[in-house]
Fold these 2 entries.
Entry 1:
Amino acid sequence: SQTIHQWPATLVQPVGSPLSLECTVEGTSNPNLYWYRQAAGRGLQLLFYSVGIGQISSEVPQNLSASRPQDRQFILSSKKLLLSDSGFYLCAWSFSGGYTDTQYFGPGTRLTVL
Amino acid sequence: AQSVTQLDSHVSVSEGTPVLLRCNYSSSYSPSLFWYVQHPNKGLQLLLKYTSAATLVKGINGFEAEFKKSETSFHLTKPSAHMSDAAEYFCVVSPYGGATNKLIFGTGTLLAVQP
């Protein structure tokens, strides 16, 4: 069976500091990977998705970036955090090829920028 | 344009009574539809998925949803609420009914279960 991990679970960072959130998937190969942000009262916002190593699509222009250095690893980064980057960050995966629309979510990372 | 509307932002029920969470969708194609549940500070868990095989879809934890094309609805129900059902529920549409990378999420319904 497949498992998705995210870390850290919680993070408190000062404004202007860098960010690195990691997501890994086990039990499947070549998954599609996604980063979402869930801000208070604003629902889920798709930030990035990836269909393969080094292939990143950005949905929302911002000071965040994503990378996929390995098949089952997805990293969300920022060089300088803003207050507005606070939120709950969710990583998700789906099978690639054929019907890919079911997404499975990780446990999330709660980021607070002070 | 594709969209999904959750008609209630908050629903409160008593333990042991039925649950109804309402969702309407708009899609130009045959959609896939999902319900996810999110407990506080947790990720989203898939409850059930509709893919046109059957209009009544049974999910985990006693939940089910009925796809009604004529009403463009996909309401989530459960015969008897349990305290552990208290959470936020998201109705989601995959507008192209298959291979797509972009889901459309509703704004969520917060379910409270009173003892």
Entry 2:
Amino acid sequence: DSGVTQTPKHLITATGQRVTLRCSPRSGDLSVYWYQQSLDQGLQFLIQYYNGEERAKGNILERFSAQQFPDLHSELNLSSLELGDSALYFCASSANTEAFFGQGTRLTVV
Amino acid sequence: AQKITQTQPGMFVQEKEAVTLDCTYDTSDQSYGLFWYKQPSSGEMIFLIYQGSYDEQNATEGRYSLNFQKARKSANLVISASQLGDSAMYFCAMTHFGNEKLTFGTGTRLTIIP
């Protein structure tokens, strides 16, 4: 158990809909990262938050947004979903060098 | 730009043998970190081992060791005495000082044969 909790584990939704993925980092970790894993793109960095502030942005679509709350949990919001958004979405947290990953949320858009 | 290359899409290894998974990286920075993660069929990403670019000794964690050859820009993972439970995807990744996001390779699918 990495100590990073993601909910839900699975999500099936229709095109055009909006979903929210939730992440609770390891106790004391200030950094939260979101990654997307898809068959065609591999593992891609989306966005990083540090202690509530956006710190780095990767290949995140404009339809996607994230935030980190005062209790350090984070949410990734995906809107106007398309079939191509189907993927495994990971949250990771770190304190120093190693990043520890949650179990992921498998999103299927139908 | 940083890039990680894993040239072995798949490997089959006999149980109890040692296995080496290849990873080369490309960066112009002097300060960086190299990681290996394991992804079993269940999907989670499990941290295995870390090597800093200034670390003089190769990192080891139990049966895992990282063969770090800085001049050749390689960071191969060595698993000693492989077990059936080692069957999984293995990803090499790197970060840079001041930029903590992970850049991943495409992965190697390792299958351990009884």
